[in-house]
Structures are given as C-alpha cells and as structure tokens.
Amino acid sequence: MTLLRITATRTALRVPFIGTKTTTVTPVSLSARCYSGHPIKVTHYESGWTADGVDDSIKGIEKYCTQTFNKISQVGLSVFPKDLYDVIPRDEAHGRPAHALMLRSHKLQEDQVDPSVRAIARCGAGTNNIPVARMTELGIPVFNTPGANANAVKELVLCGLFLGSRRVIDGINHMKDLGKQGLARERVEKDKALFGGREIKGKRLAVIGLGHIGAATARDAHSLGMDLVGYDPGLSVKSAMKLPRNMDLADSISSAVANADYISLNIPYIKGTPEEGGTHGIIGHAVLRHMKSDAVILNFARGELVDSVAMKEFLDKGGEGRYISDFPDDVLWNHENVVIIPHLGASTGEAEDSAAAMAAETLRLYLEHGTIRHSVNFPDTSLQEKDSNHIRITVVNKNKPGVLSAITDVFAKHGLNIVQQINHSRGEIAYNVIDIEPAAGDSHDFRELQKELTMHDGILSSRIMGGVAGNGYARNIDGTYYA
C-alpha cells in the first residue's frame, strides 16, 4: 500500500502553505458595461416560428425569461433583478418561450426545452435528471452548482459517523416500545447494554473522493480527533491545500480502506462498471474484501456506487460492519446493520438558498456577459469586460476544423473589426466570445450577418448581445433558422 503525506505534497508542488489565514473572495461583478452605441437590429420571433406560435404581446417583452420546474429558493431567485428578468414557474408560463431553465429534481425532457432556451441550470451538483449529451448536441450549456450544498451533506456525513458508532436509532426505537408498555423507567438501565458502541476519536477514516464534500468531511473529522487517509486520483493542488495537514493519501480505493474503521464515499456516479471506466458498483467484492470486518461505510454520494448484493454478503459475515446510506436500497433496506436515510443530504434551507443563488448567478453571467462557469458540458470561458461602444457576439459550434476561420470570414465579409475574441473547446463542442467594433452609422443591422453566420456548416447557435434583453439569439435546428 502506497501512502503519501499532504505535507510532502505541498512541498513537492512548491505551493506556499497559507496556514490559518482567512482569504476573502470577491464575487464576480454581474453589472455588465452596457452597450451605448446606436440601435441594433436583429430578427426576433420571425424565423422558424409558426405564425401563431408566439403571441405579439410576448414579442414585445424586453426582459429575459427564466422558467423554473421545481420550487426554487426565493433567496436564490432574488439574484435576478426584476427590471431585467421575469422568473416564472413553467406551468404558469402560458406559452411564453423561456430563455433559461432552472430546476432541482425535475427530470427534464427534450420537448420541454424551447428553441429559445440558451442555458439550463441545476440547483445541485448532479445532472443525471438532464439529458446533458443531447443538450450538448443542440449547443445548450448545462450548469450545476458544485459545493453549494457541501456543508449540508458534510454535516449529515458526520451524523452518519455517529449513527455508525452507536446504535442510537435502535435504542430510540427500543425506548418507544418500552414506553408503549409502560416499562421505560424499569428497563432503561438494564437494557442500555444492548446498544453499546465505540468512540470515533482515534479511529481511522478513509475519505474516498476529496472534492468539496470530501475535503470538508476530512477537516471536521480531523478536528474530532480522527486519523485520516484519502483517495482521489484527480486531486488538484487547490483541493489538496484544503485538506488537513498530515493526512495520508493512498494510491487506490482498496489501499485506502484496508485499515480504516470508517469509509466515507464522496465520488461522482459515472455510468458503467469500473472496468468500463465508470463507478457503478465500484464498492463491490473487490473492494469490500479489503475492509475490516467492523468497518462502517458511509454513502452520501450516490446509491449506485455500492453493489448491494456484495454489501449484504459483507455485512452477513458476522462482523460488526455497518452501512449508512442516504439512498433507498431494495436489498439492504431492512438489514439490522444498515441505516437508510431518505436522501436528506442537501435538504436544508441554507443549502437550497446557496444552490439557487449560485445557479442564478451562473445564468446571469452567461446571459449578460457570455461567460461560462460551472458548466458540465461546455468549457469554462471568460472574456474581459468589453468597451461600451463594442458589441459582443457569442457562437456555439461543433468542434471541428475550419469552423473558426469560417466565423471570422463572415465578420470580415461584413466589414466588422474583431477587437478581442476567445475560443475554447470541450469534447465535441466549441464556444466563442467575440467583441466587434461596429461600422459607422445611425443603426447596426445584424439580421443578414447572423443568419449567414448561424446557418454555416458546423454552427449550432449565435447570440448578439447589447440590444434588448432576450433578443438576438439564433439557432440552426436541423437546417431551419430560428431567431
């Protein structure tokens, strides 16, 4: 088993240790420098829409429309300024096309994504309820809120530590039974021996996955006097700096759990078996055989990470091992050494407020600036603030040769000077943010340029920013121009 020390990692990476100094992070400003030049002409609900598809009263609304599918925290939704955004529950939109979608647990269907939708944000970390692959094909970024619910989940993991150490729930249920019989006072001292346990101080905790939740769990477990070992093949320098000093790092899950009294799972679910590069059933026979017979496994990540049949066999061997999970399990739900919690990890008002606020801020950055942050399918992209006399245009295209040059050729053809631009790609998708200096004149007509640009082979969508909120978006949907 190979173990590394975090202190050694800091030295090797030549990253200065900050100690206990508190760093204040200044939020990114959402107040864009508005375009102050001549009026911009764009096609608006005139191409690709049926004549009766959009009401004239809707066409005249000069605001972004964000539609929600679940009950979203009002604290988070307040990030949207009312003079620039209408935030409407989907079932109250009455045919008004959405510019952005926000959701929590709703399972999104493709037919719920209007052609006008520019972005989708999930108030939470997982995006399994969104058809991300299909949205990528359509050129729509999907955002999540990593870390927004980390504290809430971490606190429940700590709760799981105690539930796995003491048979508190069994004791509570026993006292209820005695109370019904009127025997509680008579039996309490005698029966408490049935529910003995152990302390966590001095015990070894293996943290599998050292992201926001895993790192927070490690820090608090360290403060409770626990010995720590972690495993994360993708551990970054930034994440490593957040871990307790003297925490050991293992080179595999098996080596991390080998001598651990407690194991906390904090890794993402990736479809496919471990042999296929996924994490489905990653805690199976191959890992469980390395665990101590009295190990306590804490799963507050995803139920599918654990092979339930293999876990049952592990627990049935007669040891004192226990499994604490935040997810339903058809195999283990009534096992005497299993505690199943009804997915309460992020179910706090604070977590919901934080996730909704982060999602709203992310959507604002994208809609108002073209900035991409916390996307699960698009590359992080940010172009410095533009001059108020310049016009920002964004383009989403397939990541293939020749498309970028075609984009710049269109601007050159129309006599427009590119002041600054950025092009980033991620997998099969590429994203461009371009600031142009408009030609002289009393108004700027981008209707023909945008159509030519959007309908070029490989282009999925384009946005001309700086005009009326909600206007200036165009898509190429199977050869049909929607604008």
Automatic annotation (TrEMBL):
Its recorded reaction(s) are: (R)-2-hydroxyglutarate + NAD(+) = 2-oxoglutarate + NADH + H(+); (2R)-3-phosphoglycerate + NAD(+) = 3-phosphooxypyruvate + NADH + H(+)
Q: Pathway listed for it?
A: Amino-acid biosynthesis; L-serine biosynthesis; L-serine from 3-phospho-D-glycerate: step 1/3
Q: Which domain of life is it from?
A: Eukaryota
GO MF terms listed in the record are: NAD binding; phosphoglycerate dehydrogenase activity
Q: Could you tell me the EC number(s) of this protein?
A: 1.1.1.399, 1.1.1.95
What is this enzyme's class at the first EC digit? oxidoreductase
Pfam families per UniProt: 2-Hacid_dh (PF00389), 2-Hacid_dh_C (PF02826), ACT_AHAS_ss (PF22629)
Residue ranges annotated for the ACT domain, each copy included: 392-467
What does the UniProt keyword field contain? NAD, Oxidoreductase
Which family is it part of?
Belongs to the D-isomer specific 2-hydroxyacid dehydrogenase family.
Q: What PANTHER family does the record point to? A: FORMATE DEHYDROGENASE 1, HYDROXYPYRUVATE REDUCTASE
State the protein's purpose. Answer: Catalyzes the reversible oxidation of 3-phospho-D-glycerate to 3-phosphonooxypyruvate, the first step of the phosphorylated L-serine biosynthesis pathway. Also catalyzes the reversible oxidation of 2-hydroxyglutarate to 2-oxoglutarate.
Q: What is this protein called?
A: 2-oxoglutarate reductase
